[in-house]
Amino acid sequence: MNQTGSLRRTVWAALIFVVVSTVVLSVLQSRLGFQNTLTTMRQMPVISDGHDWYGKDSWQFMMKAYLQVHQHPGQDLYDAVFFTQHEKFQYPPTSLLFFELFDKLHMLDYWHLNLFNHLIVLLTALGMARLSVVMASELGLESLTADTRSRVALMALGFVSTWFFYPVIWTLYLGQIQAWITCATIFACIAYASGRRGWAGVLMGICALIKPQFGLFLIWGLFRRDMRFVTAWLGVVVPATLLAISTYGFEQFVGYRHALDYMGSRGEAYFGNTSINGVMHRLFQNGNDQIFFEDHFADYRPMVYQVTVASALVLIAIGLWWSFRTRKDPPLPSFLIAQLCFTAASPIVWVHHYGALLPLFMLTFLTILRNTAKLGGQVISKPLIVLALTYLVVANDNRILNLAQGPFNPIQVCFLVAAGVAAWLLIRETTRAEPATGTEPRTRSRRWFGMSRG
Prior knowledge:
globular, 20 helices, mainly alpha, 65% helix
């Protein structure tokens, strides 16, 4: 009973920390004249119709691409829109299939797209509420899931933290399709935690139709020998790709490869690009990092390109190696590590691309509590303090740090470093030795995520 009360109070303390830290940091930055997380939150109830600059970040480029393929069938979409008109349409042709559905429903406009995004983020918050309880249950934290008050605390932490997590709410402000990927990732976690690996494959297949780097999850699934995940992923991606080829033409995929080559060799110097590519551009001062240019990318520099490619290969290797190394273990830690690695490997990674760090933080937090309960020690431990510090960097709009110039420019890498530290904490806490129990665990439902080790 005492342990139950202690853990429940820790969860409520985490919820208070999420709210208070965001308010304090936002007020401090507001006093200094900077946009902050609260500024973004105040804009959330507004459903933009596209008359302002916000609320159309993804939609404006996708709409132009959609009109191009329908008004000029047979022409190279990327040659016309990306290279000639200099519009930053960075998505594969399969992404336009979603607009076909909106068009059929007579909802292809900014207002309906942003309304759908609001519903998606609400669904994301509800998903996090559910996922927090599922994670605690499968981690063996019965003291947090056995009574109603503890479950309410967990659900409140999951739900509220979503609305205070800057990479998530920024997608609403911008009008970003990334909100769909974050939501799909969270529900893929729920599917995996519930043993429904096929549904996890379906959801990650949908993500791959929008962002090609999630095609790496096919290899991830093969490394884990998870054929249900792989089959479901293929069951989404293959028919959708064939449909896109039939609808738009194979030449669009050839054009997209050229666009990918171009983006990969250049990237962005703007401070919002949190990838290794962005860090290198800013380190060499290759372009203005305080202005986002809508019509061009950073200039090509051989050193930046070489480091970008090398770092991408390393990050992908880490994601796949950890998958292979833990292939007989429960999949969720490996899944979230791979998601982070595959995202960070891209040459252009904006802050809102890290929405999937939210379930990673939740899993790490609960794993620390699990280890404290089983191995003993203080609840407010060093790992928990480090996790809190990394959360402060990742979960808030800390653009004040982006003023660092010249020799202080590396400060701008703090977001990427914090994300890496959070991933390291998850690996560390997951692999900590548990005390021997003298009993063989059940094969049908592990105390982790309901998955067999076989």
